[in-house]
Amino acid sequence: MEAPLAERIRPQKLEEYISQAHLVGPNGSLTQQIAKGIIPSLIFWGPPGTGKTTLAQIIAQESKRPFYILSAINSGVKDIREVIEKAKQSGGLFTAKNPILFIDEIHRFSKSQQDSLLAAVEKGWITLIGATTENPSFEVIPALLSRCQVYVLNAFTKKDLESLLERAMKTDTYLSTKNIILGETEALLRLSGGDGRKLLNIFELVVNASNEDEIFITNDLVFSLVQQNTVLYDKTGEQHYDIVSAFIKSIRGSDPNGAVYWLARMIEGGEDVKFIARRMLILSSEDVGNANPTAFIMANNTFQAVTTIGYPESRIILSQCAVYLATSAKSNASYLAIGTAQQLVKQTGDLPVPIHLRNAPTKLMKELGYGEEYKYAHDYTNNFAEQEFLPQALSKTPIYVPGNNSRENSIREFLKNRWKDKYGY
């Protein structure tokens, strides 16, 4: 069976490698290391289809090192140990020719699987190259991460992807026999989602579907042949965090259009309804707060409802809540208040509770005056009695500062009426 196009035109040398000039260009850090023949253990972090595996193979080939490859999807500790034993036998320890062990999707390894690599990396039995689409800060254990250099592979640009297509038409033994004209590339690029491997797979599908001597590529032709545009959305990956970030920022920025668009991206990607509702519940307090306390009730009811209902109907409830929050008055005053209070606690330590606020459950405590001068608010006019509620060292320190919106302006007036000039309201 013939290999896929992406495999057939995989670069064999550094000069054939497209993109990542910051790593493998004339002045790239990896270019210099390869030239010196001293390769440290590496983690390649980047989107799918940006050439992580290819780059690892080129490094091994150009540095003339034995190359072993494992996939974290179907490999366990036993497989790792077997490869390490082979590597120990094939390379000299602490030499420039240490075998390279490439692990694809290393973020899928458990802590124990990653632990099994530590000794081999530390003692120089292997040079590890791991590939991940996830942020290694979260997915690679600190002990292993500290022994590796992390290199970020950038997403392919439009120019990079078009260069891939041009090279495929020129160098592939099959495609080079065809008369292919790239009339339009937008559909190919959009459907690929920036993934070079996926781009070449789609391109090959389109070319193979034609029996004509001349194949004229148009957007309509591509869309007619590629029925399913798979949404690029990994529920546990970087894309997941980027899209939910855009969703939250759209609501915070009072744009229901952006909010519902990013909500749709999450829904189409199969995101957990509870995750979406949970984020809106947090936002309702952090970003709307007392400017509209009903927002919290709305978000909480949304969370309860979608937990019970699920897809597909939950999309309607999630949309209603997102629009409500986006079009609501905003205040982060409560969020800032707890941050200020926590910072004060860190700076001032365990300040004593004023004696009139202390609990007095025993006779001795009562004799010592605990709670003696406390004024029960309901015994006073307007249910208010002026007294000190902060430790003495923090007296008159404003912690909650009402936001500038109609409801919190009325809260400001309420506090100013009660506390006069004490807190500067």
Automatic annotation (TrEMBL):
InterPro entries: AAA+_ATPase, AAA_assoc_2, AAA_ATPase_RarA/MGS1/WRNIP1, ATPase_AAA_core, DNA_pol3_clamp-load_cplx_C, MgsA_C, P-loop_NTPase. The keyword Nucleotide-binding applies. GO terms for biological process: DNA synthesis involved in DNA repair; DNA-templated DNA replication. Keywords: ATP-binding, DNA replication, Nucleotide-binding. SMART domains: AAA (SM00382). Residues 38-156 form the AAA+ ATPase domain. GO terms for molecular function: ATP binding; ATP hydrolysis activity; DNA binding; enzyme activator activity; single-stranded DNA helicase activity. Transmembrane segments: none annotated. Belongs to the AAA ATPase family. RarA/MGS1/WRNIP1 subfamily. DNA-dependent ATPase that plays important roles in cellular responses to stalled DNA replication processes. This is Replication-associated recombination protein A. It comes from Flavobacterium petrolei.
